Amino acid sequence: MSTLIFKQKPRIIGWYSVVGKKESEGPLGYTFSRIVKDEYFGEKTHEGSERKFFITAIQGAIQVAGVQPDIVFAGDLLNQIVSSSFAMRDIGLPYVGVYGACSTMALSLLTAATFLESGVIQTAVAVAGSHFATAERQYRTPLEFGNQRPPTAQWTVTGAGATVLSTKQKSRFAVTCGTIGRVVDYGVKDVNNMGAAMAPAAADTLMRHFKNTKTKPSDYDAIFSGDLGQIGEEALRDLLKEQGYDLGENYYDCGKLIYDASQKVDMGGSGCGCSAVTLNGFIMNKFRNGEYHKILFMATGALLSPTTSFQGESTPGIANAVVIEEVTE
Question: What whole-number distance in Å separates Cα of residue 229 and Cα of residue 14?
C-alpha cells in the first residue's frame, strides 16, 4: 500500500531552519532559526553557499535535539545531489541521499520514519534545501544573463531545513503516517510553470491519502502543499473539487506563504528549501505553541532535468505526504 502507518510513531525531537535575506523579509521571516544575509554565506560560489546552508541546518537541528543521530537523509536540486553529499563530508555521519525534486523534504521524512519503524536505527535527521542562484544556473540561465522572468515563474527559496526524528527520545510531536507519491504527467512542457506540472500529482497523492486513511480535509488543523504557487494551488483545488474534496480554508501552500507579493516573486516560492524551511520554522512553531495538533504536510516536486527539457520532454510531477500530529503516549 502506498500509505505507510508508523506504529512506532517516530518523535520529532528537534528542528532548525536557516534562510537567506529575501526569505527573512517575507511574512514568515520571524519563524526561522537563523538568517544569513550574505548570499555567498562567506563562500566563493553559490554552490558552496548552498552546502553551508545544509551544514548549518543539520548541525543546528542536532544541537536542538541534544542527541547524536545515527544517520542523515538529505537531498537537493543540483545534479547528483552534490549539495547534500558534499555537505556530509563535514558532518561525518552515515548518509543516504534522496531525490524527489522539491518534494524532497517530505520524502526524506518518509524514508527516515521507515528506517526508524524497522528498528535498525533510533535517531535520524531529515533535511532538504536549495539556493536561488544555483537553481537558476542549472535549470534556466545564470543570473548574469539577465533574462526576463515570465509571469508564471516561481522564485527558488534560499535556505535549508532539518528535522530530527527518534524512537528513543520522547516528544509531543510525531510522524504517524505518510503517503508515497506516484509520478503523474499531464504533458506540461513549460519549465517556468511548475505549479501546473505538479498540481495533478498533488491531487493524486491527496486523494489516495484520504481514501487510504479514511480521512477528509477537515480532519486536519491544516494541510500544506510544498510549492505549487498561485497557479498550482488553484489547479489543485479545482482537481480535488472534481473528485468531491473541498480543501476549504485550512489549506495553504508554502510557496505562497513564504513571500509577500511586494517582493516580486511572480507566482511564489519554490525549491527543496521552500517546504523544508516552512516546516522547520512556521509549522513546527505552531505545534510548539499549541496551535496545531494534526497536519498533513505534502511537498511537491517537478521531476525535470536540463537534458529532458532540451529534448522537448514534458515535466512529470510527484507529491509525497506526511502526517505530523501531537501524541500523548
Answer: 28
